[in-house]
Design goal:
about 200 residues; mainly alpha; 10 helices; about 0% strand; globular
Length: about 200
Amino acid sequence: LVLGGAGEDLGLDLAHAGRDLDGVGGRAQVGLVGLDLVGEPGAVLLVPFAVRRNELRPVLRVWPWLLAFAAVEIIGPWLLLGHAETRLHSSTAGLLVAATPLVAAVVATAAGTDRLGPTRAAGLAVGMLGVGCLVGLDLDLSDAGAVLAVGGTVVGYAIGPLIISHKLADCPRVGVIAAALVVATLAYLPFTTAVW
């Protein structure tokens, strides 16, 4: 998949899957020990391809935007959502995270890079309703800190793609994702080492 280009987001998908699996396997017990697994599997898979295709060098030229992307799309959401999932029902977390496309549309409209028309707004509302039907409407907002943590995750997930499309658009996608996963792995390394 990675060679054919169809799986360019595989590493990021692995990072998100790792976060989701972590939530299933006993959130409170896992704590910081599993944090190094955020970027490691994706980095191990993608870095060799990115190096072979010479896709890391262009990304390193815009390293501040790479760090910003890694922070808002991987590092921050992992910490925030990991915390929130220990205190909120999974349906509440799912419904709140499902607001990401809506927040992304609002941010893009405010930044002047996109337009949120009535048709798109209706589509986003139908999508949110669909997620509600899938995960249930068991909405519990009693833990304000956890709700704010999910809100931070949603904002990060909304801003990440904007950074890629506007600041990292000239960079190869496999290189961006591979480098961001390496950054995430390195960012979590001190925590995992301290726990071990």
